[in-house]
Specification:
254 residues, single chain, TIM Barrel, 8-stranded parallel barrel, alpha/beta, 8 strands
């Protein structure tokens, strides 16, 4: 069975962010992930991880002005300096918390526009090389266009081609099963073909993005398939609980 990591940005929201670590550990999780830790000093978040015996699976590099609608800077040609500053902001967090994977959000941009494509390639190359020097892998994740309209990286084939072309050991695919099913379907065959490129997996039901316990996909089969494929990383539970986090954890106990 895969190692599941509770996503503390979507789950356990009945508690304040810093109290979610204890709640996740008490619920049986041994690992967590989250979107952004930057509202708290790195040593404070690291203390919550350590105190609760939790591993950190993943978090995101700074996305720009989230409140203003920015969803990453990598594909924005005029924001390269801001992107570099964001990487430097994230590194102390990763080092304090023992994070070995960071996700780079692409941003809202036209993937058909050459300046956006060039900016994205430059940003991915810079981020991957900078983080690799510190033993950290860089994840890129296709996100479906319904949840995030206008998102630059909304295609698994484009992400695969870039990873293969750059051929950097520390550059990996973040394979979100929920986004894959909405964008392309064919989840199992994609996992089999792309497994050598995958650095992190995430899961939620489709189409509701609730607990991975039904709807379009057979999640027990997919979890067994990850074992069959030899995947040893984390599976991030990036879902919105239907009716309270604890009430929805029957799928995990099963």
């Amino acid at each position: 069975m895969p190692r599941f990591a509770a996503n503390l940005s979507l789950m356990f929201t009945e508690w304040s962010f810093l109290d979610r670590f204890a709640a996740a550990a008490e619920a049986g999780f041994s690992a967590v992930e989250f979107l952004f830790p930057y509202d708290h000093p790195p040593e404070v978040v690291a203390d919550r991880l350590s105190a609760n015996g939790l591993e950190l699976a993943l978090f995101n590099l700074p996305p720009g002005d989230w409140a203003a609608g920015e969803r990453g800077l990598a594909a924005l040609p005029d924001r390269f300096d801001d992107l570099k500053a964001g990487i430097q902001q994230a590194i102390p967090y990763a080092e304090a918390m023992g994070a070995r994977r960071l996700h780079l959000m692409a941003g809202i941009a036209d993937r058909g526009a050459p300046p956006a494509r060039e900016a994205y390639r430059r940003a991915v190359l810079h981020a991957a090389e900078t983080l690799a020097a510190r033993g950290i892998e860089l994840m890129i994740e296709p996100i479906n266009r319904w949840d995030m309209p206008g998102y630059f990286l909304d295609d698994f084939a484009f992400a695969e081609a870039l990873i293969r072309d750059l051929a950097l050991p520390g550059l990996k695919l973040q394979f979100d099963i929920y986004h894959r099913q909405i964008l392309h379907g064919d989840v199992t065959m994609a996992l089999r073909r792309l497994m050598p490129l995958i650095g992190h997996v995430q899961v939620a039901s489709v189409p509701s993005r609730h607990e991975p316990d039904g709807e379009e996909l057979n999640h027990p089969f997919l979890f067994d398939e990850l074992d069959r494929l030899g995947y040893t990383g984390f599976v991030g539970c990036e879902y919105v609980p239907r009716a309270g986090t604890l009430a929805g954890l029957g799928w995990l106990r099963r």
